[in-house]
Specification:
- This protein folds into two domains: 221 residues, Rossmann fold (3-Layer(aba) Sandwich), CATH 3.40.50.720; 74 residues, UDP-galactose 4-epimerase, domain 1 (Alpha-Beta Complex).
- Helix 3 runs parallel beside helix 4 and helix 5 crosses helix 9.
- It is built from nine helices and 13 strands.
- The N and C termini lie far apart (44 Å).
- By secondary structure, it is of the alpha/beta class.
- The chain binds nicotinamide-adenine-dinucleotide and uridine-5'-diphosphate (UDP).
- Nicotinamide-adenine-dinucleotide (NAD) binds next to helix 1 and strand 5.
- Uridine-5'-diphosphate binds next to helix 5 and strand 8.
Length: 324
């Protein structure tokens, strides 16, 4: 294949997708960004529109679309709990029909397709840290199931299209990732804490804040996705990508207060149902196959994210759902 690829990024106007598009455009590829703007807006990619090798399509991935491409990164799916729980049936359709539509396209075009799966496939894990061999502990009937089970079903579809049709697929399981261009009203913990700290509002700790997450900076994560896409065809994954340094949510809140110099106070709020108790990726597979380790420390990544939040005008952002 020529070194210039025709690349489709579904969910390309989102937080991770827009950065991925930037990297691909900079590398000279012909990039099609497809998005329905449910949890994002055109401003995330407005700076790319001037590039002749970038194209933006408003489309909902639950409907088929005919394009000619060599690579597909399938990111279209609401990712924040408040977003994916707003219309859970649509979330499940997006994962399942979206997977069927991109896999059908990949089959027709003989394209390679990468699925942005998630640590949520492990549910509330009994195994710590989580390795790819762990099959997870997901509540199939709870409020997170539309996302978790949707992403699990998408993984199944990817593997079955590979087995049945020889489609070249790649699965990455992304752990909590943060950085500039997160939707300020997505309700995720990093955006909430930074927005609250900068406004001098109370910082909302769900539960007692002892639950843990491991936070990966956007640039590290996108680099891993790009490397995974170009691994040999027989390496499918699933492969964890994320930062293996674990923090409690209380520690995160204290760090955000320190880095913003805020006078905000911590307040306790009820822990949402099925909120995972702890989460940390085992990234041995990523180290072995793509020679990748994240190198942005939380402090450094938070400083960059805080700077970005300071620079935006919140009135230019519409909360995608009332659930934030
Ligand atoms: P995001 O919400 O910013 O991006 C998702 C994008 O998909 C948005 O632009 C949204 O408008 C678009 N979208 C949603 N439904 C669509 C549909 N039906 N048709 C077309 N476009 C649609 O979130 P993100 O953090 O950038 O996440 C990107 C992908 O990575 C998602 O698939 C998510 O599940 C996965 N992921 C992210 C994280 C993380 O911590 N950021 C962790 C695990 C997995
Ligand atoms: N959380 C919190 N306060 C907030 C938002 C989130 O304490 O204002 C907690 C949430 O309960 C969870 C963790 O932070 O334990 C991460 O939440 P997020 O929604 O970012 O993502 P998750 O990893 O749960 O999908």
């Amino acid at each position: 294949m020529s070194s210039i690829q025709r690349v489709l990024v579904t969910g390309g106007a989102g937080f991770l997708g827009s950065h991925l598009c930037e990297r691909l455009v900079d590398a000279g590829h012909d990039v099609i960004c497809l998005d329905n703007f449910f949890t994002s807006q055109k401003t995330n990619v407005a700076h790319l529109l001037k590039h002749p090798n970038f194209e933006l399509i408003r489309h909902d991935i639950t409907s088929p679309i005919w394009l000619e491409v060599d690579r597909i990164y399938n990111l279209a799916c609401p990712a924040a709990p408040g977003h994916y729980q707003y219309n859970p049936i649509k979330t499940l359709k997006t994962s399942v029909l979206g997977a069927i539509n991109v896999l059908g396209m990949a089959k027709r075009c003989r394209a390679r397709v990468l699925q942005a799966s998630t640590s949520e496939v492990y549910g509330d894990p009994e195994v710590h840290p989580q390795t790819e061999a762990y099959r997870g502990s997901v509540n199939p009937i709870g409020p997170r199931a539309c996302y978790d089970e949707g992403k699990r079903a998408a993984e199944t579809l990817f593997m079955d299209y590979r087995r049945m049709n020889g489609v070249e697929v790649k699965l990455v399981r992304i752990f909590n990732t943060y950085g500039p261009r997160m939707h300020p009203f997505d309700g995720r913990v990093v955006s909430n804490f930074i927005r609250q700290a900068l406004a001098g509002e109370d910082i909302t700790l769900f539960g007692d804040g002892a639950q843990t997450r491991s936070f990966c900076y956007r640039d590290d994560l996108v680099e891993a996705m790009l490397r995974m896409m170009e691994t040999p065809a027989d390496f499918v994954g699933p492969m964890n990508i994320g930062n293996p340094v674990e923090f409690s949510i209380r520690e995160l809140a204290e760090l955000v207060i320190e880095l913003t110099g805020s006078a905000s106070q911590l307040v306790l709020r009820p822990l949402p149902e099925d909120d995972p108790t702890r989460r940390r990726p085992d990234i041995s597979l990523a180290k072995k196959h793509i020679d990748w380790t994240p190198n942005t420390h939380l402090r450094e990544g938070l400083l960059a994210t805080i700077e970005w939040f300071r620079g935006i005008d919140l009135s230019h952002y519409r909360a995608p759902t009332p659930n934030f």
